[in-house]
Amino acid sequence: MRRSFVCGLASFVLLTGLTCFSQQDYIARYSAFTAFSYLSTPSINLTQRGFDADFGINVKSWLTIGGDFSYNHGSSSLLPNYLNSATQQKLAQFLPLLPPGFDVATPYDISTYTYEAGPQFNYRGLKKFTLFARPALGALHANVTTKPYRCQQPELECGPILTQIVNGLLSGRTSASDTVVFYGAGGGITWEATHYFGIRAAVDVVHYDFFSNILNGGRNSVRLTVGTKFNFGQNILGK
Q1: 222 lies in a domain?
Q2: What is the mean pLDDT of residues 33-57?
Q3: CA 124 to CA 190: how far, in whole Å?
Q4: Which of 2-16, 58-72, 100-114, 147-161 shows the lowest per-residue confidence on average (mean pLDDT)?
Q5: What is the rounded distance in angstroms from the CA atom of residue 95 to the CA atom of residue 162?
Q6: Which of 5, 64, 128, 177 could staple 56 via S-S, CB 3.0–4.6 A?
Q7: Is 20 a member of any domain?
Q8: pLDDT value of position 171
Q9: Would the pLDDT of 18 be above 50?
Q10: Mean pLDDT in residue range 139-158
Q11: What's the chain look like in SS3?
């Protein structure tokens, strides 16, 4: 009896493993993905959160062509060591006029939009999971609004002083925007819960050079997305 139970259990595990690792037999023509997005730029101590959406057309089982859009928002502070040499020279003109111990870190809010299109390469050798990799190439648009009055030293009347500094560095403005090209690579995994619904997690690492007239060089960002994928359209495998 015990031997029969063990053999039965082993057979169940084997059959389950074979089912899990067999190839997918249904791939819908179209897919749409919506997700929570987490965007991190460590070099300027910036974290943003928002949402991501993409749409794909499965041309082959291994190839998807699609587009991606994301919006992220966050807050941080601009430090002098983030600035390029020309901007630091402008800042140096204000330093002799500042009170002792004055911190010139300037708070700001930022909204970032990304637009991307291109191929995605899929591995569908697992019944319930799709692995994928993709190049990341697109455009990034950022809107920054400085918040001098949100400074951390109100006893030194930091708000008016920082406002004057920001106006001097940004030619009389307290906000700026920029649009640049980014490039990199990404990938992830989708749990294909049913033929029409799945859960996807992805990570993209990209490089870009925004606000180059102020900041000191290019930046690397990491975007994590986790959300739901919906499949629709005919089965491209013809089964």
Answers
A1: yes
A2: 98
A3: 10
A4: 2-16
A5: 11
A6: 64
A7: no
A8: 85
A9: no
A10: 92
A11: CHHHHHHHHHHHHHHHHHHHHCCCCCCEEEEEEEEEEEEEEHHHCEEEEEEEEEEEEEEECCEEEEEEEEEEEEEEEECHHHECHHHHHHHHCCHHHCCCCCCCCEEEEEEEEEEEEEEEEEECCCCCEEEEEEEEEEEEEEEEEECHHHCCCHHHCHHHHHHHHHHHHCCCCCEEEEEEEEEEEEEEEEECCCCCEEEEEEEEEEEECCCCCCECCCEEEEEEEEEEEEEEEEECCCC
Residue 137 forms part of a structural domain = yes
Q: How far is CA 160 from the centre of its chain?
A: 34
CATH code of residue 113: 2.40.160.20
In a domain? residue 14: no
Range of the domain at 199: 25-235
